[in-house]
Amino acid sequence: MTEAEFIAALRRLPLHPAARGLNDDTALLDAGPLVVTTDTLVEGVHFLPTDPPQDVAWKLVATNLSDLAAKGAVPEGILLNYPLGDDAWDRTFLEGLADILTAHDTRLIGGDTVTLPPGAPRILTVTAFGSDAAAPARAGAKPGDALYVTGKIGDAGAGLAIALGKSGPAELLAAYRRPQPRLADGRRLARQVHAMMDVSDGLLIDATRMAHASGLAVAIDLAAVPLSDAYRAYSGDRVAAATAGDDYQLLFAAPEDFATDATRIGAFLTGSGLVLHDAGTPVPLPPSLGYEHRA
Amino acid sequence: MTEAEFIAALRRLPLHPAARGLNDDTALLDAGPLVVTTDTLVEGVHFLPTDPPQDVAWKLVATNLSDLAAKGAVPEGILLNYPLGDDAWDRTFLEGLADILTAHDTRLIGGDTVTLPPGAPRILTVTAFGSDAAAPARAGAKPGDALYVTGKIGDAGAGLAIALGKSGPAELLAAYRRPQPRLADGRRLARQVHAMMDVSDGLLIDATRMAHASGLAVAIDLAAVPLSDAYRAYSGDRVAAATAGDDYQLLFAAPEDFATDATRIGAFLTGSGLVLHDAGTPVPLPPSLGYEHRA
């Protein structure tokens, strides 16, 4: 698509009033204090060249909305920095973009389009803005707090293996390609919990980061890590589940007696680092806790 | 540099309080209504692989600050989406980033770092936030308004030719590599002018866009286009100056008797399109008015 065609297509998406109809050089955003987050996905690094473009669009926006969810924010809108490529890819990407914007009542604020040199991998950036956020930090866990996680863990990691050629159910593949940002959970939890973040690099590494930011240690019960029925049938490997990334669940610290439908999987202790056990039996730490060097 | 080293280096830059010390997943920005703009630069498209990395950093931020200048905004801060590459390039890039942030009292709010597949061209994105903006639109020119431009036009176009191997003075090369966003001019002008934008793609194409957005025609006097002494000595070609991009001057519409040290170069008329003359003598339009298809 040409730039003009692409922008015309963007104008048919839900536009934020700040976008001024995509007719100006800047957007004017007046939505009170804002939560701001930005993520860049690189073809061949964060997504596969064979991933369907509509799912790349979904995931690009979903990863950003997941960061807003962890702050309890209402999605205000996004900026898109997009490399125009072949026509079919661009058109299908726009379909996925429309899907996720509509699914999460998020609007386009603006962006930039560029042309890449021939053969260059696609690099896509989305910047997301959220309003009305309680914005709990990573660093707020207190000694004695329990560690909780929403939803199920490990589906996306299995889905990545399936995307790479392993056989497995469509449900797990969908968890990898179309993660669901936990915006409603985030809204409900943000004003009550002590610390919260999303699980993007792996449950163990992300929990360790929360503990580190809070100046504490964390003990996690592998047996408590919530697995889906599909994942149990696929492999049921709890260490793999807890170290795979892309879950986009919410991980939070709250008192032991906190009333929640999230799963309690561990506890914060004075000290530092991570202790792993399986219903009380100590478990050695796996060589990798998640995507530690992921840039 | 590793991601950890790069982020440690970013922490030594002027940080916005919203950045929370770059220790969280999101920034929290509470600066009133915001002007938001984003620009992506692609190696081999928007900058040359041989351009010094510190100048790439400067230009990446400067192009965004120029958009803020055209709205009369005070720079609040930036997000940086950065592909980690070789050590020397990263370190030198950071020096240029420190230069421009310091020069324009702009602070880092956050961003994202990624790793590229081997051989991929660098793609860099900056998103800039400005506050307290009068934010004149492109579309506000009135019939009878004069067209004005700040500074000199054409230096950066000559500088690009010099960067590509032509001989010429360092002053023109610097105009291409280290454009100066007209933030002070923008602050002064924004509350008084009828329409304003920056000149990024070429004086003629950008003036035509302002006229189009305003539902008017524009007549430009080539003889009035302000040239620097260095450009006059280099070539003095007025059509080349008026169709080269990267000037990052401010172009604005205001009444005929508007008191300004900017140069009056034309007038808005009822109708549509562009009329070019040389001190009254009609001049045919050049085949290209600027980077028309620049994405």
TrEMBL record, chains A, B:
Keywords, sorted A to Z: ATP-binding, Kinase, Magnesium, Metal-binding, Nucleotide-binding, Thiamine biosynthesis, Transferase
EC number of the protein: 2.7.4.16
Stretches assigned to the PurM-like C-terminal domain: 142-271
Binding site for Mg(2+) 1: T38, D39, D112
Molecular function terms, GO-annotated: ATP binding; magnesium ion binding; thiamine-phosphate kinase activity
Pfam entry (one): AIRS
Residue ranges constituting the PurM-like N-terminal domain according to the UniProt record: 24-130
Residues bound to ATP: G111, D112, R138, S200
UniProt keyword Kinase, yes or no: yes
Signal peptide: none
Pathway: Cofactor biosynthesis; thiamine diphosphate biosynthesis; thiamine diphosphate from thiamine phosphate: step 1/1
Annotated residues for binding of Mg(2+) 5: D201
Example of a GO biological process term: thiamine diphosphate biosynthetic process
Reactions accelerated catalytically: thiamine phosphate + ATP = thiamine diphosphate + ADP
Binding sites annotated in the UniProt record for Mg(2+) 4: D25, T37, D67
Binding site for Mg(2+) 2: D39, D67
Positions with a binding annotation for Mg(2+) 3: D25, D67, D198
Positions annotated to bind substrate: H46, D246, Y291
Enzyme class name: transferase
The family this protein is said to belong to: Belongs to the thiamine-monophosphate kinase family.
Other facts noted in the record for this chain: Reaction mechanism of ThiL seems to utilize a direct, inline transfer of the gamma-phosphate of ATP to TMP rather than a phosphorylated enzyme intermediate.
HAMAP family: TMP_kinase (MF_02128)
Summary of the function given for this chain in its UniProt record: Catalyzes the ATP-dependent phosphorylation of thiamine-monophosphate (TMP) to form thiamine-pyrophosphate (TPP), the active form of vitamin B1.
Protein name, UniProt field: Thiamine-monophosphate kinase
Lineage of producing organism: Bacteria, Pseudomonadati, Pseudomonadota, Alphaproteobacteria, Sphingomonadales
